[in-house]
Amino acid sequence: MFQKSFSKLNNLKNIYIYIFSWLLLGMLFTLYLAQYISCENEEVLELTTLNSDVVCNRNYIGEEDGIIWLLDSSTYFDMLVGSEYSSVTISVNPDSLVENDSLKVRLSIGTEDKNTFCAADDITKENPSVTLTVPNKLKGDDWARIYIQNGNGRTISLESITFYKETPIYTLKDVIFGYALASVIIVFIATGFYLYNNNRIDRLGTLFYGMISAIVVFYLTCFFSHGQLLSSLFWYSSSNGTYMDFISLLIPISNGINPYYNNGNYPALAYLIIKFFALIIPRESPYIWTVGEYFDSYQSLQAVIVSGVLFEMVPLFISLLVINKKLIKFENEDNKRMFNIFFVISAPIAFTIERGNIIMWALLFTLIFIAYYDSDNKWARELSYISLAIAFAIKIYPAIFGILLLRKKRWFDSIRTALYGAALFVLPFAVFGFRYCINFINGIIGTSTSNLGIGDVGYDISLKNIVRTFVMLFGIDTGAFYRYLWIVIVLALLVVAIFNCCEHIAILAMTLLIIAVPPYSYFYTSIFLFIPFIYYINRYQKDNCKENRFWLVTYIIMFVPLALPLINRLCIGYIVRISYFQLIQYVCILLMEIACLFEAINMLRKKIITLRREK
């Protein structure tokens, strides 16, 4: 049977029909079994005092910290049940019982005039709470009568009467969602195998196809979870902070306020770029920079939304053009198309767009530098030096890629680039006042220290925060270990960046310096990982897909989001909030840095062996 079925899978149409047929059968079978799947009790009605829905006989004498009645004869309570209740729990205050007390509790179900006995149990001091099961078949107007009988002649305190209904652990919606998601995953996998086996795409194309498929599955899962799992990638999706970084830069500029009055923590060139995008904000706009209300006011402006989209999309697509024209030479057009799709929807790009961070512009000018710094055309080289200077004047840390000039011993070019950077960093302060350079430095210091001691440790991939996260989650006392670890890893990354003969590893070390060194380094800094990833892809094509698979796995982890829930755990006095996906990424970053550390040790070992041989 299966051989005949598989023999017909010679095109995608038959493959899809085959997959969906088996999935449909599986869903029907699961739905049939759903009635036998265990259920959990959901509380639907709790009575701690009597109300108009409860009828009591004459032996009820009043309320005093609960429901109290005399036990010299039977006492009963009648209440309208309805068809949703499955069980009832009666709880008595054990302090009102003595050692030999035994209350007979009976449950009868029926109409207001006629009741049928269905369950009974005893309440004792050792067992002050009992649960009685309600029959499955009830009508909407059914009543429950609870008899409580004892002849001790003392008053007893009844704490509560609670009705429950059974809720299946897996609902119909859960089953359908599970099979829908499984269908999407299997279809993507089947399509990928079909395209690869029929030589429609090569191994590199299969890699891009797989990552695109995983990202699509992530977003589908977020859709089906009603956005609850978006926090695994985006900044706490329950918060109202989309475009936070863009709007926080835009507000003072669009209102004619000097951003350094409040210790703005961006270089002046960044504010000048924002100044251009602020031109679209209507001058007659009534919104001003006021505490508490300014952000929501700006976030709702149509002009701000349009400006924010252009602010991120312009550098994104120019970056894509630079990559396709100069940095990656794809052997077939399909690989190029799939890379472009993957690049645009990848996790670092999506996070950066959601934040509205100006780092996208820094990435663009860094890519221009990478593309042309080794060009045969001297004007193109000069353009690349100016581009790196602009990237530095926007976000400071792209300056680390100047090590590429030092590696080639181009001292004069390095000095010229440094002068361009100094000029482009300082001169824009003329618009705001040169004296505000000090305010900028204070803003950087203030932002660096403001994150200390906060339980929200997610989205920050700096080495400092990674260590802090594991300290808070697992209670590890690192003491001075972190400082030594930071120094060792930074030195190792510098050694690898300057002296490693493999350009991919050297550029990766530079990128990890951008991520590891700052006291805070939010997830958008990982967009610079695309630079070493481009070098990896070029080697991947050149070496016929034999490049080190470890780096490939780390890139996939950093670029492809997983829909995993948040951790909310009380640790060291703080509620630690971080998703399991971010924890995986933290481990990945740490492994990349440790791998570079071993690379530096290996380089040092080889250098020592060489020196010994020369002697």
How does this model look, in words?
With 615 residues, the protein is an alpha+beta fold. The protein is 53% helix and 14% strand. The strands form 3 sheets. Strands 1, 3, 4, 6, 9 and 11 form a 6-stranded antiparallel sheet that branches. Strands 2-5-10-7-8 form a 5-stranded antiparallel sheet, with no helix packed on it. Strand 7 and strand 8 form a beta hairpin. Helix 3 runs antiparallel to helix 4 (203-224). It is elongated and about 100 Å long.
Give a topology summary.
Elements: H1 2-7, H2 12-34, E1 39-47, E2 54-56, E3 60-63, E4 67-70, E5 75-80, E6 87-92, E7 102-110, E8 115-124, E9 129-133, E10 143-149, E11 155-168, H3 172-197, H4 203-224, H5 244-254, H6 268-277, H7 294-299, H8 302-327, H9 333-345, H10 347-355, H11 359-372, H12 378-395, H13 403-407, H14 411-426, H15 429-432, H16 437-450, H17 463-474, H18 481-499, H19 503-516, H20 530-542, H21 549-559, E12 566-571, E13 574-579, H22 580-614
Antiparallel strand pairs: 1-11, 2-5, 3-4, 4-11, 5-10, 6-9, 6-11, 7-8, 7-10, 12-13
Helix pairs in contact: 2-3, 3-4, 4-9, 5-6, 8-11, 11-12, 12-14, 18-19, 18-22, 19-20, 19-22, 21-22
